[in-house]
Structures are given as structure tokens and as C-alpha cells.
Amino acid sequence: MRRPWLRAATALFAIAWGGNHFTPLLHLYEARFGYAAVTVDLFLGTYVAGLVPGLLLGGALSDRRGRAPLVRAGVLLGALASVVLALGSAAPAVMCAGRLLAGASVGIAMSVGTSWVKELSAHRFDPRLGEAERTTAGARRPALALTLGFGIGAGVAGSLAQWAPLPSVLPYAFHLAVSAAALGLLARVPETAESTPGGPAASLWDDLRVPLAGHARFVRVVLPAAPWIFATAGIG
Fold this sequence. Notes:
Largest sheet: none
CATH superfamily of the largest domain: MFS general substrate transporter like domains
Shape: globular
Oligomer: single chain
Helix content: over 70%
Structural class: mainly alpha
Strand content: under 5%
CATH architecture of the largest domain: Up-down Bundle
């Protein structure tokens, strides 16, 4: 199979598309459905809340079940989020649910998808890649796929909302088509992680433990600063 990493990267592209195509539609929801600015901000906040379980659970589950099933689940979650958002435009609770699903999908892409693309950039999966390129390709490829998805998804969604009919539906339908194409490309991508369904005495909770989480520097510096750094970038 040629360039399996590229097939896996299309999944990251599709998931990132679904994570950010909502952003240029914010004013549409304010103008067409009468949402207050604070309600629209709540939609953004639930997306961040969805990121957390995707980031925390995705990596641990993929170590046990494999990268491919988790990334496929991420694409499906993103597609489901688009269906929910397209059908629930007038219901704030439904919109929050859709954004929560979208956040979980992107969390899986960031935690599992990036690892999968990096592992698919190893010599046995991509022997044509030179040694000098290999040192950076594992980080560069998934980052580029995510960045393109975030940017192009927002651009297309905003353009469709501005000039196409059904502005609160068509952007999501477009994402569903992108997701379907990505799922088709994933069908022949090899697995890179060995599944360990009943591993030695370790439980999923053990996998989630971070031994250094109680370190003084983490508690006093990283933990208080991290939310503000994330919020600054998000608001920007």
C-alpha cells in the first residue's frame, strides 16, 4: 500500500473540518435564530468540554484496542455531531450536545490520530522517506492535516452560509461528504498498535494515571496556568 500515512491523515483533516466549521456560523445563529451572544459562547464552551474526554480517554483506549478503531470512531463522532447540529439549530440543548460530540471527535484526532500518522511515518510503513525527513515528518504531517482541516473547513462553511441556500444545513452536509470519503480511505490503512484487551494487571484507570501529576511544579505552575493559556488562545 502506498503512503498509508496520507490515508490516515485524511481522517484528521475530516475531523478538524468538523471541529471548526461551526465557528464562522456563529453570527448566523445570532441573526437567524435569535441566540444571545452568551448562548453562542456556551456552544463554544461545550466544544472545549468535549475535548477533555477525547484527549484523556482516546490515547489509553487506542493502546488497548488499536489506533484504527479509535480514529474511525472519531470520524463517526464528528459526522454525528454535524447531523445533530444541522437538525437542532433552534434548540440550544441540542446544539450543545452537537458541539460536545464535535469536541470529543477532535480530542481523539489530537491524541490518537496524531500518534497513528507518526507511527505510519516509520520506515516499515514509509520506506521512501529519508532519514533526515523522518525526524520531522512524524510531527509535521499530522499538524499539517489538522491545520488544513481547521482552516479549509471554516472557509468552506462560511462561504456556504454566506452565499448558498440552507445556510444552517448545507455546511454540515458538506462535512458529512468529507467524512464519508475519509472513512473509505481508512479501510486499508494498517494498524500500528498491538491491542491488549486483557493486559497484565493494568486497568484503564491505571493507564490514565499520571505519576508526576502530584509534582510540586505541576501543581503550582502548570495546573493554574494551563486554563488561562488555553483560554487566551481560544478567545484570540
